[in-house]
Automatic annotation (TrEMBL):
This is DUF1272 domain-containing protein. Pfam families: DUF1272. It comes from Pseudomonas cuatrocienegasensis. InterPro entries: DUF1272 (IPR010696). Residues 60-82 are annotated as: Disordered. It comes from the Bacteria.
Amino acid sequence: MLELRPNCECCDRDLPPHTLDARICSFECTFCSACADSHLQGHCPNCGGELVRRPIRPAAKLQGAPASSERVRNPAGCRAAH
């Protein structure tokens, strides 16, 4: 099950479970659409994988399967994928 991480790893922008602006890679590294599109050019800086729109978990399912509250942040900010 997806963690639905609460923030962008680059800029620390809040990304609530219902947002359409979250992007993830296959390892669930999480970025906002602005960082994913501009700084990262659609590729995860951690694994080099493709960043795609994170699916939205229906609100009725969040009670039994809540989003993560653990914030992940790269102190160096955004850097391009290798």
